[in-house]
Write a structure and sequence with these properties.
Blueprint lengths: L1 H19 L10 E8 L8 E7 L3 E8 L7 E6 L2 H13 L8 E2 L9 E8 L4 E7 L5 H16 L3 E3 L1
Parallel strand pairs: 5-7
Antiparallel strand pairs: 1-2, 1-6, 2-3, 3-4, 4-8, 6-7
Pfam family, one: DUF6438
InterPro entries: DUF6438
Protein name: DUF6438 domain-containing protein
């Protein structure tokens, strides 16, 4: 009797999990590409540009001061879950509704964080954040992008 009940339980779990699991790629996002750039300061601020498209193709152009990376162009495939995290963060912060410019330009030694998002409807939104402290949500997004730059398995391209 125990084996019979265990068998029914396993079959039930199998059908339940198969019926409710969706491919990540089936989930929709209005974002088609993300571009993020960190510009130089007078010190050792990281200087790079990362571009990621909806197909999870990512390129990285390193200029200077990026941990464990020499200057050059790199490529990787972003895990699909990371794309979903990024697009979700941007949608939750209502990126399209943010101001286009942040920061106090009277201070001359701060790097800028530039973010450009392209949408399915053909529209784009750019945010230039001098000092990289525009909003709390933007700051969290910048840290997430830094983490991707420092921890993904990038391949140097020619």
């Amino acid at each position: 009797m125990k084996n019979f009940l265990l068998g029914l339980l396993l079959i039930g779990l199998l059908f339940t999990s198969c019926g409710t699991t969706r491919k990540l790629s089936d989930r929709k996002s209005n974002i088609t590409s993300i571009s993020f750039e960190r510009t130089p300061c007078f010190g050792t601020c990281p200087v790079y540009t990362i571009q990621i498209d909806k197909n999870c193709e990512a390129t990285l152009q390193v200029e200077n001061h990026v941990t464990n990376k020499n200057a050059g162009r790199y490529h990787t495939n972003l895990p699909e879950k990371e794309w979903l995290k990024l697009s979700s963060k941007l949608e939750k912060m209502n990126f399209e509704e943010l101001d286009s410019n942040y920061g106090n330009h009277q201070i001359s030694d701060l790097p800028t964080a530039n973010t450009a998002i392209a949408y399915k409807n053909g529209g784009t939104k750019e945010v230039k954040d001098y000092g990289a402290r525009g909003t709390e949500a933007l700051s969290a997004f910048y840290l997430h992008m830094d983490s991707l730059v420092n921890h993904l398995d990038w391949e140097l391209t020619k």
